[in-house]
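User: I'm preparing a small set of examples for a lab meeting where we compare how different chains pack in three dimensions. I only have the primary sequence for this one, and I'd like the structure in token form so I can line it up with the others. Please keep the answer compact; I'll paste it straight into my notes.
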Amino acid sequence: MRIFTFSNRSEVRRSQYAQNIQVTFLRDAEKWFEQFGFTKTCYLCGMEKFITCSGIPVRVVTYGNRSDSGSAALLLHGYMESVEVWENFAEQLGRHVYTVALDLPGHGLSGTHSEVNSMELMADVTGEACANLSVGRVVAIGHSMGGYVALALAKSRPALVSSLCLMHATPNADDEEAKRQRDREIALIGAGKREMLVSQSIPLMFAPDNVSHLYEPIAGIEACALIADDAGAIASLRGLKKREDMSDFLKTFAKPLLFVFGKKDRRIPWETACAVAERFPQAQTLMLENSGHAGFIEEEEATLNAVKAFIS
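Assistant: Understood. Below is the structure token output for the 312-residue chain.
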């Protein structure tokens, strides 16, 4: 197994994005790295490698020291995101607990299935990645779409998931309007307008008051969102549209559960967040006053402290 790591993340970003290079990465990770002249033996803030799961290459990044018990915190990003979205959060969490993050299928530098990246498929890929790393128990921490994947993972592999943290995610399925919006996004990507879609969508993750001073992470997320190819983005939208309602499953989930919501979330209305918290009184709930849909960036310290306390 070939391991690729880097000495300086900003150098990697300049190579990938500042020159407006768009990367289509499906199967041949080694050729991609050789094309840009990256070395294969130096270090980033996390250890990166590519493994094959369910027939596709998957990029995995680990932080901190491996636990003798085989346990880890597992970070699962949202739609249009990649491992980079967790960069600061994962590095700090890795000082507290062994932490694993990966690019989910259709995102970042991971491959994709051609038709539908269902939440179940993403969960299977995640479970295989954990097995490859000899991780047998995880606190599954999912942001938005990653929360849906975490739920699917907890349902399909209950022995693996010891607790759940759903960040800006609910167990609800898409309603009809949300499904129509997925179709509109698929049509835009098919028309070659993904860059426009990304530039419009990513800032909406953040509370209006936070957009200007969080310009740098927003720009970084936008750049990373354009790495995966159109087929991966469309397959992931189809998976989001078809996902099942997990409310009944979550009612029977007898393990620790943490919700993280933002009061200024433009995707999950405050009333919806409060209703979810009331439906699952067994859960701990962190309500962030000054966050939109990305509290782990907008109010990083408060979110990190809550997650560390939850893990402990």
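A couple of notes for your slides: The chain has a mean pLDDT of 87. DSSP finds 13 helices and eight strands in the chain.

User: Perfect, thanks.
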